[in-house]
Inverse folding.
């Protein structure tokens, strides 16, 4: 094995003029090797790298396109939601206005109903007062009539003697007898 290592070491001592051999200068060989590797990578890897970049570009464009479509969909949904909101607000305003109108109508109906009820109660009150006045008036008339009758009977009893009393009774019996003959 020592011979193999010696032979590689001895190659490093060859003269560089016109001959083929290994360059043991690390800096020079690395640059050359690096350029060869980069050249080979660029030559053979250009297609692969280009495909990878194109695929990545397409994915990014697709993502952007999808995002735009989603954004447009979201904008459409937002507009629809705003339109529905405006519609609901208009309906709510109409319900509110109709509700206020209905409340006002009910209020007026209640006032009218109350006014009519009060008017009926006033009429009932007036009728009751009139009835009670007539009743009281009739009672007063009846009492006055009774007192007048008692007074007249008292006056007649005191003024009538028995003879006058008998003549009055006979006259009344005669009138009643004549009335009986007329009715038969």
């Amino acid at each position: 094995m020592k011979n193999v290592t010696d032979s590689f070491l001895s190659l490093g001592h060859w003269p560089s003029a016109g001959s083929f051999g290994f360059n043991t200068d690390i800096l020079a060989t690395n640059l050359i090797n690096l350029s060869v590797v980069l050249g080979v990578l660029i030559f053979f890897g250009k297609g692969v790298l280009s495909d990878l970049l194109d695929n990545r570009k397409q994915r990014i464009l697709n993502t952007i396109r999808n995002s735009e479509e989603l954004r447009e969909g979201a904008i459409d949904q937002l507009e629809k939601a705003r339109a529905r909101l405006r519609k609901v607000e208009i309906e709510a305003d109409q319900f509110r206005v109709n509700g206020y109108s209905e409340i006002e109508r009910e209020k007026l109906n209640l006032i009218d109903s109350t006014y009519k009820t009060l008017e009926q109660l006033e009429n009932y009150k007036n009728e009751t007062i009139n009835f009670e006045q007539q009743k009281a008036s009739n009672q007063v008339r009846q009492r006055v009539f009774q007192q007048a009758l008692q007074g007249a009977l008292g006056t007649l009893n005191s003024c009538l003697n028995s003879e006058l009393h008998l003549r009055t009774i006979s006259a009344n019996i005669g009138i009643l007898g004549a009335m009986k003959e007329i009715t038969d």
About this structure: Confidence is low (pLDDT under 50) at residues 3-16. The CA atoms of residues 164 and 170 lie 10 Å apart. Residues 26-159 form the longest helix (134 residues).
